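Example S7 (structure tokens).
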């Protein structure tokens, strides 16, 4: 199994409570990855292209992206489509973390290159456990090509 402590995780979500829970869950799991938070789709793209408030960021691309669907400015599916159109980001796993149980969202995400679709549990402890498991899979279990 490979660990990627030098890589960051990009967390894209406009819900501050969900962001706090996900950060805490990932830190509790002791992965050691830097967690970058983008509050909307435009910020996520700014991070990937090192523009705006991320213009001076010197780090590498993320080991994976946790991407919410329902966000202002650019929603998660729009961001996913833009990410998948750029070959620079081909190898970055994109995990859709959403409260949506809409099968059209599920299908659209997979049709546009999402690597995983995870519905956020309502129960807080379940939510934390799901985030830990997602992190464990994409950081510890999954082998990536560099």
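Recovered sequence:
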């Amino acid at each position: 199994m490979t660990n990627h402590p030098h890589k960051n995780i990009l967390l894209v979500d406009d819900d501050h409570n969900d962001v706090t829970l996900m950060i805490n869950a990932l830190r509790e799991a002791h992965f050691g990855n830097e967690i970058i938070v983008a509050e909307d789709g435009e910020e996520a793209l700014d991070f990937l292209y090192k523009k705006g408030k991320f213009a001076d960021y010197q780090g590498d691309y993320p080991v994976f992206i946790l991407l919410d669907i329902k966000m202002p400015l650019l929603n998660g599916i729009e961001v996913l489509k833009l990410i998948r159109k750029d070959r620079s980001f081909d190898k970055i796993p994109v995990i859709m973390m959403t409260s949506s149980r809409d099968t059209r969202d599920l299908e659209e995400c997979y049709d546009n290159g999402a690597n995983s679709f995870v519905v956020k549990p309502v129960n807080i402890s379940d939510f934390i456990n799901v985030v830990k498991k997602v992190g464990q899979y994409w950081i510890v279990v999954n082998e990536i090509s560099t």
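Notes on this example. The longest strand covers residues 94-98.
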